[in-house]
Write a structure and sequence with these properties.
Helix 7 (352-366) packs across helix 8. It is built from 22 helices and 20 strands. The chain is of the alpha/beta class. The longest helix has 22 residues, at 373-394. It has a seven-stranded mixed beta sheet with strand order 6-7-8-9-12-13-15, covered by helices on one side. The chain has a six-stranded mixed beta sheet with strand order 5-4-3-2-1-14, with helices on one face.
């Protein structure tokens, strides 16, 4: 039997438009001699429709369009199996995820999806009632079992730990071929898993498998198509293109093969997926051109390259926004990139005057406080404002250029470099950004070589590099993969001994602290099994798995946030302590001075009493600010304590600091030196 695997790209919610595309593809298949046409899951509505399904008018329109489509197919001598949605007329949730069998001008049969995924990006149990009955139709003497996506992903013989209690294929009526309507999102390497699983299933059941997958991108999700036919022996007989629409003609019972060549290298898959993601996000939102900031760095360079491939270089507008801290080579690298890509427009908009204006406005408030991250973030927000202004003025969509490593640990400025409508490389770790950039340059320089070779830097202050604030990216990315994708807690990861314990807990704290930023970030194009966005559902206000167990460490469960008054009280204590210890106290002072030097023991002892007295009220993060500048100079062995306190979420009390000192032979000398330095 000649069949058509109709791999098409629907637009979510465009029910009438999708129905027209289905009809056109079915007519094309009929002209090519197809007797059976199979389309993806929820082809009529597009996948995933999400909360559009909560509107009865939307579901009614889908039912009406499906019935009309069946009537329009009546003049074609074929049977079409189409994914759509319908009301549940029985008990349970109000809707069903359906495969509709259209023939003779009507919907002859319907099958309700039985396994409803509710993990990662899926939330089908929110809307649908699962089906409870199989469906077998007979076409030209061939028994066809109809299933929808997840229904074939629970084979106990293949999966060591199936997610569902029952396999819809167990006890199924006999069939010669299994039809599966899918909308399976892409992730790097997933197609190999699909093919292996479907091959094993077809061989075990001794049946043909017609697998049809959606292509295109809807919001964060990218669908790679690659619809396939497998023979009863497990051999792949046909495969459609990746990341493209196609009406793939296949023959049940044929011994021939028609497998479209494909490139499963991670860089190739990533490039095609992200390009498609940008293209469809723009096309389905009516966007014709994009803009982005070009810093001369690797992230913005890669984003610009992907955008150029997706929407055309003529439709990409780059802005170079140098500050007094921008290096000459950064501006030069950005200009070279624009020339290599032949961008439609490149503008240079310095931010020096804006920085000065902000500085003057904030001077009465900031006073003589030393510059810190506040001034650095002002620079990022100036750039974000300029980029948004350009996007508004010219009707372009702003792309944000942050990578997964930065988004994970919050090394990005909210309302600054996080501004934008789409995070193109937000699911690529920094090390993967470099690998993809080198892959792009495999046939010649596209991204300037200096951009790839120079140390990454935000250039928000003189001589700054990313590694001033973060662990080396190779180490950081390895830790993040273990935590985010393999679900290892910081404690478990630290106990393995593969990474420095302090670094593990520091990274964990950063991941925890950045959750509020991710809630406000642009949608991230998903290319891995765990991306930030709809598949990441961490609470903001919580005791997180990314925090250490304070109870096990002997720390208080909760600590009251320190106030300005608390800080002033501590400073007053230190001032009085300094004044008191510099006054003479008769012969006692002489003996102490001789034994320990300049009253350091006495001052250290009194400081210790103060620390222990207030430890339940004031975290060490406040007290240590008075000591931190002297730690590395006075006692190098204690230099990590400040960072350790920050690793533990700014809540490690002073008692923990003292405990750390006591565990070292030099605790006495260390504390006295720190206090003695002022």
């Amino acid at each position: 039997m000649r069949c058509a695997l109709i791999q098409f790209n629907p637009k979510v919610g465009d029910i009438r438009g999708n129905a027209r595309k289905i009809l056109e593809a079915a007519r094309d298949a009929a002209v090519k001699g197809a007797r059976l046409a199979v389309l993806p899951e929820l082809a009529v509505t597009g996948y995933p429709p999400r909360d559009l399904l909560l509107y009865p008018a939307f579901v009614r329109e889908a039912e009406e369009s499906a019935a009309e489509l069946a009537r329009e197919l009546a003049d074609l001598d074929l049977t079409a199996i189409v994914g759509s949605v319908g009301f549940n007329r029985g008990r349970g949730r109000p809707l069903r995820n359906l495969a509709l069998v259209m023939e003779g001008g009507e919907i002859a049969h319907s099958y309700a999806k039985r396994l409803l995924p509710s993990y990662d990006v899926f939330d089908e149990a929110r809307y649908f009632e699962p089906g409870d009955a199989p469906l077998v139709i007979v076409k030209e003497g061939t028994r066809l079992a109809v299933t929808v996506c997840e229904d074939v992903w629970n084979d106990e013989a293949y999966w060591p730990a199936p997610l569902y209690r029952a396999d819809p294929l167990d006890g199924h009526p006999p069939f010669d071929a299994l039809v599966n309507l899918s909308a399976s999102p892409f992730s790097v390497g997933k197609q190999r898993l699909r093919e292996d699983m479907l091959s094993a299933l077809s061989a075990r059941r001794g049946a043909w498998i017609l697998y049809v997958n959606q292509t295109g991108a809807n919001d964060e999700l990218i669908f790679d198509g690659r619809s396939s036919l497998f023979g009863p022996d497990g051999r792949m007989a046909a495969r459609a293109k990746g990341f493209a629409e196609e009406v793939k003609m296949v023959e049940l019972g044929s011994s021939g093969t028609d497998v479209c060549p494909d490139d499963f290298a991670p860089e190739s898959e990533t490039w095609r997926a992200l390009s498609l993601g940008v293209l469809d996000y723009c096309a389905k939102n009516g966007i014709r051109s994009v803009c982005l900031g070009l810093s001369g760095g690797i992230d913005s360079a890669l984003t610009a390259a992907i955008a150029s491939a997706a929407v055309g270089a003529d439709n990409v507008h780059g802005l170079v926004m140098p500050s007094p801290y921008s290096s000459v080579h950064s501006v030069r690298d950005a200009e070279e990139l624009a020339a290599n890509l032949m961008l439609g427009r490149l503008d240079r908009v310095p931010i020096t005057m804006a920085m000065e204006a902000f500085g003057k406005s904030l001077a009465p408030v900031f006073g003589d406080l030393p510059p810190d991250a506040a001034e650095e973030n002002v620079q990022a927000r100036i750039r974000g404002t300029l980029l948004m202004a350009v996007a508004n003025k010219f009707g372009r969509m702003l792309l944000t250029t942050g990578n997964k490593s930065e988004i994970s640990v919050g090394y990005c400025t909210i309302y600054g470099d996080m501004c934008g409508a789409l995070a193109v490389i937000g699911d690529l770790y920094k090390t993967e950004v470099f690998r993809l950039a080198r892959w792009i340059n495999r046939d010649g320089p596209v991204i300037p070589e200096n951009t790839i070779l120079k140390p990454p830097s935000a250039e928000l202050k003189p001589g700054q590099t990313d590694q001033d604030s973060l662990p080396p990216y190779a180490e950081l990315d390895a830790i993040l993969r273990e935590m985010l994708e393999l679900r290892k807690s910081p404690g478990e990861l630290a106990s393995e001994g593969r990474f420095d314990t302090e670094t593990v807990f520091r990274v964990a704290r950063l991941v925890r602290a950045a959750e509020f930023k991710r809630r406000q970030a642009a949608p991230v194009l998903r290319i891995t099994g765990q991306a930030f966005g709809v598949g990441w559902r961490m609470p903001v206000a919580c005791r997180s798995i990314f925090e250490p167990d304070r109870e096990a460490a002997g720390w208080p469960e909760t600590v009251s946030p320190p106030t300005i008054r608390d800080a002033r009280t501590i400073l007053d204590m230190r001032t009085k302590l300094d004044a008191w210890t510099t006054r003479g106290c008769g012969p006692t002072r002489g003996r102490l001075k001789t034994s320990f030097g300049r009253w350091n023991l006495l001052r250290g002892g009194v400081a210790a009493v103060i620390c222990m007295t207030v430890s339940d009220r004031w975290p060490f993060a406040i007290l240590s600010d008075a000591f931190a500048a002297r730690v590395s100079h006075a006692a190098p062995g204690l230099a990590g304590l400040k960072d350790r306190s920050r690793t533990y979420g700014y809540r490690c009390p002073a008692a923990g600091f003292l405990e750390g000192l006591i565990t070292r032979r030099s605790w006495f000398i260390g504390l006295s030196r720190i206090c003695g330095q002022g």
